[in-house]
UniProtKB/TrEMBL annotation:
Protein name as catalogued: Transferase At1g60990, chloroplastic
NCBIfam families, sorted: ygfZ_signature (TIGR03317)
A matching Pfam family: GCV_T_C
Family the UniProt entry places it in: Belongs to the GcvT family.
One term under GO cellular component: mitochondrion
Gene3D superfamilies: Probable tRNA modification gtpase trme, domain 1
Species the sequence originates in: Durio zibethinus (Durian)
């Protein structure tokens, strides 16, 4: 087992995995208990394995105020917006390089987190979103999509199934509306409770080829190699921590949902293991180049869930759910008329610009970002199915040349097969 590197700057702490459950834990972690008893043998335990735990560089005292983490990163040179979003660590190029060759850590605490609890929570989410929640068990997870009754896409949610709750991670723009919408669909007899826990928690994401090594150094090796969405509970100096496989941009890497009090300690531990911090500006560049659709850009009332290419989040084998009739009809009659693509551009372009082929409008640009070089320009856009494919040339706006390309997030999506396992 790989042990964590010593760090003299901090007092010694522990990650202790506990998969038993208790009512005594805080609301978010009501389905988990965390042992704070000291053991001479320093064990990390789970249902399936027991392994030796190593010392980690966590401070034992909680921060003096809830937002001490943001104050800490701001004092270290990060630029933090008035909304509490870390825009940049003034290292965007270095962070994007580390994403390809090392490991980065992103603060995604401005993304929404919704807790769905109550005895009917699984059936409720099963009926309200596109994924098959009834086939999932405690400790598993998935992507699911919130859609309108006509299958127009609202947002993608990354879901963790816990013993007494489901945690949904959604985009910042949609959290309030989704919370309100879910509450609206709770009927009188439904045993379901919806709570926005965004301000009570922090969310970090690890990404890059060396993220598994960081997990091993933090004694979380039991999650490495597990299926996307697998999640388990731990503690940091007695404070709750949930770690999941994957993050809201890819199936690789990991997500860490933590209490406000332990955010600074966890962040510093990740940095001590070599993770490079990545701000929201670089994150947006990453989102576009990876091809992840976003609300108010690719996910709007103008486009449906199949046009957005979110096949891995859709089940055709479960019972009735919102948008199912439209989705089934589109698949049955091959009614998907356009799809989302990546586009390499010869110059900058504004979202909303028309995409044309041979002088005829065939689509619309939805997102744009500059590359790491001044000559690099990249975008996402919807293009009619018969108009262009990978490698084809299109015109964006008046005279910007574009080349259609696959993007990683969308290329991993595969159309569901009827009557197959969910």
């Amino acid at each position: 087992m790989v042990t964590a590197a010593p760090c003299v700057a901090y007092l010694v702490g522990r990650f202790t995995a506990r998969l038993e459950y208790s009512r005594a834990a805080p609301l978010l972690y009501r389905d988990a208990t965390f042992s704070t008893k000291k053991s001479n043998k320093n064990k990390l335990s789970s249902r399936k394995s027991i392994s030796t735990i190593a010392a980690l560089p966590f401070e034992l005292s909680p921060p003096p105020i809830d937002h001490d983490f943001l104050d800490t990163v701001a004092a270290e040179g990060a630029r933090v917006s008035e909304e509490g979003i870390i825009e940049t660590f003034e290292n965007d190029d270095e962070a994007l390089d580390a994403l390809d060759n090392g490991v980065v850590v992103m603060d995604l605490s401005h993304f929404g987190r919704i807790r769905v609890s109550g005895d009917d929570r699984i059936q409720f989410l099963h009926n309200q979103t596109t994924a098959n929640f009834e086939c999932l068990s405690e400790g598993q997870g998935c992507d699911t999509v919130f859609v309108t009754p006509t299958a127009r896409t609202i947002d993608i949610a990354y879901a963790w199934i816990m013993k007494k709750a489901v945690i949904l991670m959604v985009s910042p723009e949609t959290c309030g509306n989704i919370t309100e919408m879910l509450n609206k669909y709770i009927f009188f007899a439904d045993k379901v409770e919806i709570q926005d826990i965004t301000k009570q928690t922090c969310l970090f994401a690890l990404a890059g080829p060396k993220s598994a090594q960081v997990m091993a150094n933090l004694n979380l090796m039991d999650l490495v190699g597990q299926p996307y969405g697998t999640n388990r509970h731990y503690s940091v100096n007695g404070m709750p921590l949930t770690v999941g496989v994957g993050n809201i941009i890819s199936e690789e890497g990991f997500s860490l949902l933590i209490s406000l009090a332990s955010a600074r300690s966890v962040w510093k531990a990740l940095l001590s293991e070599g993770a490079i911090p990545l701000g929201s500006n670089a994150w947006e560049k990453l989102r576009i180049t990876q091809g992840r659709p976003a609300p108010e850009k690719e996910l709007t009332n103008e486009f449906n869930v199949l046009e957005a290419g979110l096949w891995n989040s859709i089940s055709l084998n479960k019972g009735c759910y919102k948008g199912q009739e439209t989705i089934s009809r589109l698949i049955t009659y091959d009614g998907v008329k356009q799809r989302l693509w990546g586009i390499h551009l010869s110059a900058p372009a504004e979202p909303g610009c028309p995409i044309t082929v041979n002088g005829k409008k065939v689509g619309k640009l939805t997102s744009y970002t500059s590359g790491r070089k001044e000559s690099d320009h990249f975008a996402l856009g919807y293009i009619k199915r018969q108009a262009a494919a990978v490698g084809d040339t299109v015109i964006v706006g008046e005279n910007i040349i574009g080349t259609v390309v696959d993007v990683p997030f969308l290329s991993r999506q595969s159309p569901p097969i009827k009557n197959s396992s969910p």
